[in-house]
Amino acid sequence: MAIRETVGADGTTLVHRTFGEPTARPLVLIHGWAQSSRCWSDDVLAALATDHRVIAVDLRGHGCSDAPATGYDDPATWAADLDAVLAAENVTSGAILLGWSYGGLVICDYLAERGTAAVDGVVLVGAITSIGRGEAGGRVGPAMKAAIPAAMSDDPAVALAALDGFGPALTGPIRDAAVGVRAQALLGAGLSTPPRVRSALFARAIGHDDLLRTLDVPVFVLHGTADTVVDVSAGEHAAALVPDARTSYWEGCGHGPFVEDPQRFVREVREFTATVATRPVGSGVSGRQGSMDA
Q1: Which of 202, 204, 218, 288 could form an SS bridge with 73, CB 3.0 to 4.6 Å?
Q2: Domains and CATH numbers, the chain
Q3: Would you say the C-alpha torsion 33, 37, 43, 48 has a positive or negative sign?
């Protein structure tokens, strides 16, 4: 494992961790709201790294990355951040982008701005693809609604109570000590994300339905039917729009499939990536940024 830093277009320092052989197909993991690259357990990362070059990103404002005052409401900034990480790892083609929760929105921001030239496939895990009132791809569940706005509070007691109540939706039942440890780590990540960042991620509205309708890469939608953070209908909405969508709906599973059943999660992700063809370099569709540069 290596810890690396790069700098985004606006000067923000972005941290990511890499695992596996440098020559393997890139699998880029993008965490959710108020989390970090450490949301993925060591076992999950090690298992995925057996046949992928895993790149686990800390989004701006999260984990070890910088938390600038601005940029959280701009899809072009999110796209530039992800592009900077890919450039730092010399990833120009063949990548699989995997986004959990808010990470799915960041992936859509990137694809809308930069296109699919560097991307062969996408995995959406309990993910949103749009955000804002009336956006079917951003429909949240009761646990998320209950946590807002208290989870954004500057008052630590208020935020702690909200995030602690939010925790079971991320882990499912605490079946053993290992899941209990994960639950504490996820709670810690939420608290360590600055309140202003927690709030800023929701201070925008954007729809990506048109992007999904025209995607030229396969998408794997993996979603728990009992997800109370991102409603399963958000995943179903994305799957209905994407031309080449594969789905796995986990009966009774909540918002963290990789916590509730890490072995199944790894197996299904690997099964999907094994079916994704490697496209010739330069075969992807340009995004808005590519079109402007043309």
Answers
A1: 204
A2: 2-140+205-278 (3.40.50.1820)
A3: positive
